[in-house]
Design a protein that fits this description.
heterodimer, A: alpha+beta, four-stranded antiparallel beta sheet, 14 strands, B: 158 residues, alpha+beta, DNA polymerase, domain 1
């Protein structure tokens, strides 16, 4: 195995593109190092992108925030502006692992590791975040929901890497939230996760919503029917029940040691409803 | 496996060591630099026995490549005492018997110091969440949490 720490994006892309065998990008390393030790295949090349200027920066852009691929969860949590604008995204990222993991783990790494249970991903999808991909063919910005294609698989082409995630400007009267279920209080992987971002109109009704579910399908799901269930009215008990039913209907989960199909399907509805209520309150909604 | 030379600052001293591409910082600390205070429990970032500070952030050194450490500042348990004077946390862990076999202790101390450095007055809940990534399989957590809270109180009064 070869380790490289280039100091430009171009050099990082060049190394990844020119790699003979398997190449992996190293940011926080909290997934990659575990895979290096126990994975079936050792990569021929590891490209550490932390020496590239800007990778560790959170930058205000067009009223929103661009989060570099090497920004650890701890730094995200310390950024007051980002926390105020997208509390659901920050809280989702902070749920990942321990204090030690937060010192290293990144949102972009969580996205590119492509676990269906990744906590930050449904929150980013709900927020309408885009991933900035750099590669041999240049730069492209894609919705976060288009990055993962299945467990451990992404839509990134050879030589491409995700350099940052952009969280857009928060519209007025809007809020977001993410909830997950684990059988303990800390240090576990989501059985189900639900991210909701919504905006209220002048009349107090929900005017726009995005609902994303985690760990209930091969990738995190952005579900239109969930959003349709709550758009157009106040978020009352009837709307929340419609949302819960839509969320359960969207699930295509598996049975595994963390939960059964039936349990995940039911819990997805409960979490979507509760996350929506939090997002609604953050948006200034009144019952 | 390619070889690398790393220059870093460990506990305030400049160090220079060779390493392999896949070698962890934990292995380099222990096997190249002889700093065996950091322990390998799980080697997967779950147990916290290898906790060190890397550029001011608490991390598991088993999840850091040694080659990544070039130019970085690392603090380990070996740098916690001031000469022969133990850090108040170390003193308190001894006074309260907040350890049994001792394998998790360096990680708990490094992590607890990181907490008290940023928050001199944590609640019990703060301490328990902050230390959730440090596992102890013999003493349990009550004495450890009590030691951290009492140290915080002592240090605030000092």
């Amino acid at each position: 195995m070869r380790y490289e720490a280039p100091d430009t994006l171009e050099a990082a892309v060049g190394l990844l593109s020119a790699a003979d065998g398997a190449a992996r990008v190293l940011a926080g390393g909290t997934d990659l190092l575990v895979q290096l030790r126990s994975g079936p295949v050792e990569p021929d090349l590891v490209v550490d992108i932390k020496r590239v200027p800007g990778m560790d920066a959170i930058v205000e852009e067009a009223g929103g925030f661009r989060v570099g691929a090497a920004v650890p969860g701890a730094a995200l949590g310390e950024h007051a502006g980002l926390r105020a604008a997208w509390p659901g995204v920050v809280e989702a990222t902070e749920l990942i692992g321990s204090t030690q993991i937060q010192g290293r783990a990144t949102m972009v790494g969580n996205l590119c590791n492509a676990s269906p249970a990744a906590d930050s991903v449904p929150a980013m999808i709900a927020a309408g975040a885009t991933a900035r991909i750099e590669g041999p063919g240049g730069r492209r910005d894609v919705p976060v929901e288009e990055v993962a294609t299945g467990p451990g698989r992404t839509s990134l082409a050879e030589g491409e890497l995700v350099a940052s995630v952009f969280l857009p400007a928060r519209p007025a009267r809007s809020g977001d939230a993410y909830l997950r279920l684990i059988p303990r209080t800390e240090m576990d992987i989501a059985v189900v996760g639900a991210g909701v971002s919504l905006t209220l109109g002048e009349n107090g009704a929900v005017s726009a919503a995005r609902v994303a579910l985690g760990a209930v399908a091969p990738t995190a799901l952005l579900d239109r029917a969930c959003a349709d269930a709550i758009v157009g009215a106040a978020l009352d008990a009837a709307a929340l029940e419609k949302l819960a039913a839509a969320a359960s209907a969207a699930c295509r989960p598996i049975d595994d040691k963390r939960g059964t199909v039936a349990y995940r399907t039911r819990v997805a509805g409960v979490l979507a409803r509760r996350a929506a209520a939090i997002a609604w309150a953050r948006a200034g909604g009144r019952a | 496996m390619s070889h690398y030379r790393v220059t870093a600052v460990v506990n305030g001293d400049s160090v220079d060591f060779p390493c392999d591409a896949g070698e962890t910082l934990l292995d380099a600390l222990r096997d190249r630099l002889g700093l065996t205070g950091s322990k390998e429990g799980c080697a997967s970032g779950d147990c916290g026995a290898c906790s060190v500070m890397l550029d001011g952030r608490l991390v598991c050194s088993c999840l850091v490549l040694a080659a990544e450490a070039g130019g970085r500042e690392i603090e380990t348990i070996e740098g916690m005492a001031d000469g022969n004077a133990l850090h108040p946390l170390q003193r308190k862990f001894l006074d309260l018997g907040a350890l049994q076999c001792g394998v998790c202790t360096p990680g708990f101390l490094v992590a607890a110091k990181a907490l008290l450095d940023r928050d001199p007055d944590p609640t019990e809940t703060d301490v328990r969440y902050w230390l959730a990534g440090n596992l102890c399989r013999c003493t349990g957590y009550d004495k450890i949490v009590r030691a951290v809270l009492e140290t915080a109180e002592d240090m605030r009064g000092a």
